[in-house]
């Protein structure tokens, strides 16, 4: 249809629709509804499960339409963006009652999966990825909190590390500059990250600039409050985050079964996100760690104080994200301000408790902000402009307008009483409706008794409605007063928001303090529930864990967990764990890394005793998968990860590696594993390292190295092999591959053939070796 055949409103719609394009749904404000038209309506109705109707967009031209009420709009937007849609919000820019002709409309905001955060306490990440100078450049940004992570990865390392970052952060949206969109590695990566909303954008000098430009296109504030990255935290590569299942479990494809799930009893959104950040980047500052440990210990020892603190934390809104809304300024609601007021009141209650002196986080003085909110807000979550939001005495002019408007009810009552006396009609009443305004209503049977100055306004079945000159003049004054009240309250609310925007630094510090206490309370609950102990963080190179446990495995296990110990020091920092598959080696490695990590979070740990060296890097290689589409085998992925560990680990690192060299021929694998063990155990700045293998030969090759030999214990009986899950000093002299295969259900005929080949290989002395040198365990 040509533009000249469209109705004025339809022409206005198409002008705005062309502005956003076909890949963005346009929510077009019409009165009390946001309407979708054409294909947008079809898509929206299907996702939202609402009725698809039609509207005339020109003579004889009906088009699909569906609508949602404005007061519930955000809940509908949430459902649309969760399905991967982008939604442009077209708002009425003037009061339709005062508009001369077509109401002015404009697009005020475009929501996308990474910029709409209502209803979730999780981080909502926007990812930006490009290839430049043979490097993957990767940025993860939470627009609503200012948290970000910037990383550069050599292209020669392949895409495995990039993919691990995506599994760690789980972004909802990805921006790819047009200069990288056709890069073969980017295209292959996108084939695997199929659930992401991907947008190709113009390139810019930096990834941060790309993000800012994109936000400007969405009509969001490009002024990001970027939380500065702390320098004193442990570096944990994404493959280690994934291998240790810190925030995500690949088996459940969610946080269920992760360490985050076990620890998370936080009561605020800020605390939840702080716990997430702490898990993937624990502190490496002893003072910070010990200060937090003291607070956790205090909560553990004083459960009544802990409960009181949690009562105060419960119900505090997401102050961090509200600050971002205020900074942007376009969509601030009364509830946001009431939530700040309530949150700051609870914050001050927490400051007056015993906890204040135990929190190392600096205290924010929010008394002025709280005073401002108390003086200005009525506490009613009403529509801005209704006259019920701002207190009358906060502004003299506004107070006078409200006083007149409220006195009008008294005037109406007196007017009604006067007219009853004047006419003698006792059942006369004065009323109001939106269509006809104020009126005098009398029964039809008495309509002949009304005075001549009554002017008929409306006829009903059983009554007549009239007006008088006096009532019309009153109506004009009241309407003018309410119109001015609406304008004035909106003006005052905007001033209030601006004043709050000037105090955002105080609000954000208060939010950080609340998050800090919330995490400490959550970790203390885990410590009490699981019977954990306070670790000791030391600058010396000592790692001593007595009766340590894997917290997640223990929590989910139906049988008692078997604890294990390990001790390494300045002279011997490498432990080699031998034993068959399924005997507990991987769990032992993971639990050691998790205990070290928990200690650096300022948390109690699942051990009878733990002395943990100050650590600045944690590496974990716990198995790898083929990257067939990149031409990279499991072995190649493993070697890439090991190369990174050898390149980046130092004396302040912890390394755990499971089954090194298993993806190639036995001789190659043994040679590589031995060389890796030698390098880690003999270098000048050697890390603490725990390495497992089911090849006993590695122990023989490593006999002259400064290595602690540990073995996963098994019991051989007439019934077969029993795993004891104990890790003790020594070397396992058998791999028990056939026995494990039998336990796994391999058919007897296959096992019989395998046994014959094994006997033949054994007779060739391929696996025979002398007893390996032992080193002390404690």
From TrEMBL:
Highest taxon in the source lineage: Bacteria
Chain ranges of the DNA mismatch repair proteins mutS family domain: 653-669
Record-linked InterPro entries: DNA_mismatch_repair_MutS, DNA_mismatch_repair_MutS-lik_N, DNA_mismatch_repair_MutS/MSH, DNA_mismatch_repair_MutS_C, DNA_mismatch_repair_MutS_clamp, DNA_mismatch_repair_MutS_core, DNA_mismatch_repair_MutS_N, DNA_mismatch_repair_MutS_sf
Protein name as it appears in the record: DNA mismatch repair protein MutS
Keyword DNA damage assigned: yes
SUPFAM superfamilies xref list: DNA repair protein MutS, domain I (SSF55271), DNA repair protein MutS, domain II (SSF53150), DNA repair protein MutS, domain III (SSF48334), P-loop containing nucleoside triphosphate hydrolases (SSF52540)
Family stated for the protein in its record: Belongs to the DNA mismatch repair MutS family.
GO molecular function: ATP binding; ATP-dependent DNA damage sensor activity; mismatched DNA binding
GO biological process per UniProt: mismatch repair
Function according to Swiss-Prot or TrEMBL: This protein is involved in the repair of mismatches in DNA. It is possible that it carries out the mismatch recognition step. This protein has a weak ATPase activity.
Keyword flag Zinc-finger: no
This protein's UniProt keywords: ATP-binding, DNA damage, DNA repair, DNA-binding, Nucleotide-binding
One GO cellular component, as annotated: cytosol
Pfam families: MutS_I, MutS_III, MutS_IV, MutS_V
């Amino acid at each position: 249809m040509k533009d000249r055949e469209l109705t004025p409103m339809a022409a206005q719609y198409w002008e705005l629709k062309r502005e956003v394009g076909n890949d963005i749904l346009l929510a077009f404000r019409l009165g009390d509804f946001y309407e979708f038209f054409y294909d947008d309506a079809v898509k929206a109705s299907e996702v939202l499960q609402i009725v698809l109707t039609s509207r005339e967009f020109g003579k004889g031209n009906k088009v699909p339409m569906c609508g949602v009420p404005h007061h519930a709009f955000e809940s509908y937007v949430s459902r649309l963006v969760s399905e991967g849609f982008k939604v442009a919000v077209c708002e009425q820019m003037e009061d339709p009652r005062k508009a001369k002709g077509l109401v002015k409309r404009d697009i005020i905001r475009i929501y996308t999966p990474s910029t709409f955060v209502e209803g979730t306490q999780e981080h909502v990440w926007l990812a930006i990825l490009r290839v430049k100078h043979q490097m993957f450049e990767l940025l993860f940004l939470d627009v609503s909190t200012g948290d970000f992570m910037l990383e550069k990865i050599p292209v020669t390392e392949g895409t495995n590390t990039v993919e691990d970052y995506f599994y760690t952060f789980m972004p909802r949206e990805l921006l790819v500059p047009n200069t990288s969109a056709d890069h073969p590695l980017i295209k292959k990566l996108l084939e695997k990250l199929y659930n992401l909303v991907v947008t190709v954008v113009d390139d810019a000098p930096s990834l941060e600039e790309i993000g800012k430009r994109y936000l400007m296109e969405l009509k969001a504030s490009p002024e990001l409050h970027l939380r500065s990255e702390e320098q004193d935290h442990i570096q944990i590569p994404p493959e280690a985050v994934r291998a240790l299942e810190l925030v995500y479990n690949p088996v459940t494809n969610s946080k269920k079964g992760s360490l985050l799930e076990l620890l998370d009893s936080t009561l605020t959104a800020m605390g939840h996100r702080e716990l997430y950040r702490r898990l993937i980047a624990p502190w490496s500052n002893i003072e910070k760690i010990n200060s937090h440990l003291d607070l956790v210990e205090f909560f553990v020892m004083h459960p009544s104080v802990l409960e009181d603190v949690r009562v105060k934390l419960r119900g505090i809104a997401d102050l961090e994200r509200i600050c971002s809304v205020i900074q942007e300024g376009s969509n601030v609601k009364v509830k946001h301000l009431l939530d700040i007021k309530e949150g700051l009141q609870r914050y001050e209650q927490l400051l007056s408790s015993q906890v204040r002196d135990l929190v190392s986080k600096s205290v924010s003085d929010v008394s002025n902000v709280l005073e401002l909110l108390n003086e200005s807000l009525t506490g009613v979550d009403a529509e801005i402009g209704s006259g019920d939001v701002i207190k009358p005495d906060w502004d003299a002019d506004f107070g006078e307008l409200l006083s007149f408007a409220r006195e009008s009810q008294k005037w109406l009552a007196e007017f009604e009483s006067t007219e009853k006396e004047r006419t003698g009609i006792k059942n006369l009443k004065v009323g109001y409706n939106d269509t006809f305004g104020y009126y005098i209503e009398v029964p039809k049977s008495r309509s002949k008794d009304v005075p001549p100055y009554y002017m008929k306004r409306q006829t009903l079945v059983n009554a007549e409605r009239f007006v008088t000159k006096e009532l019309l003049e009153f109506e004009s004054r009241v309407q003018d007063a309410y119109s001015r009240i609406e304008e004035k309250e909106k003006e005052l609310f905007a001033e209030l928001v601006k004043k709050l925007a000037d105090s955002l630094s105080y609000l954000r510090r208060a939010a950080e303090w609340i998050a800090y206490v919330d995490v400490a309370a959550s970790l203390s609950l885990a410590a009490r529930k699981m019977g954990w102990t306070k670790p000791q963080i030391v600058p010396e190179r000592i790692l001593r864990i007595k009766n340590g446990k894997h917290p997640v495995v223990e929590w989910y296990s139906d049988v008692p967990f078997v604890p294990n110990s390990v001790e390494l020091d300045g002279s011997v920092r490498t432990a080699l764990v031998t034993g068959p598959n399924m005997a507990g080696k991987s769990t032992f490695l993971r639990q050691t890394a998790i205990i070290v990590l928990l200690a650096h979070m300022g948390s109690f740990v699942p051990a009878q005793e733990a002395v943990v060296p100050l650590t600045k890097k944690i590496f974990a290689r716990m198995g790898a998968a083929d990257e067939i589409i990149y031409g990279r085998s499991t072995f190649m992925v493993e070697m890439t990860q090991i190369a990174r560990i050898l390149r980046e680990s130092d004396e302040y690192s912890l390394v755990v590696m499971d089954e090194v060299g298993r993806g190639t021929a036995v001789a190659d694998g043994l040679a590589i594993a031995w060389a890796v063990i030698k390098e880690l155990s003999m270098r000048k700045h050697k890390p603490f390292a725990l390495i497992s293998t089911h090849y006993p030969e590695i122990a023989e090759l490593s006999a002259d190295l400064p290595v602690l030999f540990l073995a996963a214990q098994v019991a051989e009986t007439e019934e077969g092999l029993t795993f004891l899950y104990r890790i003790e000093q020594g070397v396992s002299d058998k791999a028990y591959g056939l026995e494990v295969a039998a336990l796994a259900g391999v058919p007897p005929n296959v096992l019989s053939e395998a046994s014959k080949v094994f006997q033949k290989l054994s007779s060739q002395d391929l696996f025979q070796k002398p007893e390996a040198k032992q080193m002390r365990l404690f």
